[in-house]
Design a protein that fits this description.
Organism: Pseudomonas donghuensis
Structural class: mainly alpha
Radius of gyration: 20 Å
Shape: globular
Order of helices and strands: HHHHHHHHHHHHHH
Strand content: under 5%
Number of strands: 0
Helix content: over 70%
CATH architecture: Up-down Bundle
Keywords: Membrane, Transmembrane, Transmembrane helix
CATH topology: Na+/H+ antiporter like fold
Protein name: AbrB family transcriptional regulator
Largest sheet: none
InterPro entries: AbrB_dup, AbrB_fam
């Protein structure tokens, strides 16, 4: 009952902020309302499959855009991926060195704090490495900072005319059901390996395959499904603040903001260089090189009319590089402990 009431209040606040003209007000208003409610009432909303819903919706919406995907598009992305690898190395080095030398943190906490991955994998690593709570504060600062920054920088709404979706025939419903079943099955397999955002990964790939096979022609995700995903994501982000005490947030928040700022500046620098070398849009490259928050960036970029395929392709590569190896390390360590 508390969860339903929380969702209703957050939806009303988010709608009011959106109506007031704030870019992506539904998402931002929901984050503020959720953080306030969980802090005041001291409860955590029970959204058992909330993050999975967000990943599936945004993954399918992104996969549908692969209709125009061809070899030329792949060739245009590959050079930028080289800059992404250098950018990730520089982000970890600069921000980690500042926490280690400037703030006097231990090397382990410094590296875990600037690990540019999704919270799911971060929490798994924190549990395995028994890191301090200040590391969690840094990652929350990173998540909220990127969400606010991206939401305020991108104008909501696309100038492109709305495209009508195909009617839901029995054949299309059966196709969608098989797609969802495939995404959930493969996503659960990746989840057991510790891969973060697994349902978004499988939804993007499976949907793109369905599109290329001609099974989802003229189908588009309904607007309400994306709005509901933004609502759920906002509640999930805001609820994270219940895990952190106010004293810890104040004590380590400045270090978290500084480290996130350094990582974003490094991403901006690499985006500027890559834009001149590759002749691409620097802002789109900056979004592609950001250290995390793939669900937020997907929602904001999708509603802002940006090149979601280009941006999320970089984030998926980042996830594969940063999460498969640590996930295997964690699983191997747990296996040794059980043996």
């Amino acid at each position: 009952m508390k969860t339903i009431l929380c969702l209703m209040i957050c939806a009303l606040v988010g709608a009011a902020v959106q109506f007031a003209g704030v870019p992506h007000g539904l998402l931002l208003g929901t984050i503020v309302a959720s953080a306030t409610l969980v802090s005041r009432l001291r409860f955590t909303p029970n959204l058992r499959f909330g993050l999975e819903y967000v990943q599936l919706v945004m993954g399918i919406a992104t996969g549908l855009m692969f209709e125009a995907w061809d070899s030329a598009t792949v060739a245009s992305i590959l050079p930028s991926l080289g800059f992404l690898l250098l950018c990730l190395s520089a982000q970890i080095s600069v921000a980690g060195l500042w926490l280690f030398k400037g703030c006097g943190w231990s090397l382990k906490d410094s590296l875990l704090a600037v690990y540019p991955g999704a919270l799911a994998a971060v929490f798994d690593l924190l549990e395995s490495e028994r890191a301090s709570s200040k590391v969690i504060v840094v990652h929350l600062m990173r998540l909220v900072s990127i969400t606010l920054l991206v939401s305020l920088c991108i104008r909501a709404g696309s100038d492109a005319p709305a495209v009508a979706s195909a009617s839901l025939t029995p054949s299309l419903l059966l196709t969608l059901a098989s797609l969802l079943a495939l995404c959930i099955l493969l996503g659960r397999l990746l989840l057991k390996l510790g891969v973060p955002a697994p349902f978004m990964l499988t939804a993007i790939i499976a949907t793109a395959a369905y599109v290329k096979l001609g099974l989802l022609q003229a189908f588009h995700m309904p607007g309400w499904s994306v709005d509901f995903a933004a609502l759920i994501l906002g509640v999930l982000i805001g609820a994270r603040f219940r895990e952190i005490r106010l004293k810890e947030l104040i004590r380590h928040g400045s270090a978290g903001l500084m480290s996130v700022g350094l990582m974003l500046l490094v991403a901006a620098a690499f985006a500027g260089v890559a834009a001149k070398v590759l002749g691409s849009d620097p802002f789109t490259l900056w979004l592609a090189y950001m250290p995390g928050a793939i669900e937020t960036i997907a929602i904001v970029a999708f509603s802002g009319g940006l090149n979601v395929v280009f941006v999320l392709s970089h984030h998926l590569v980042r996830m594969l590089l940063l999460h498969f190896a640590p996930a295997l390390i964690v699983q191997a360590r747990r296996w040794r402990e059980n043996v």
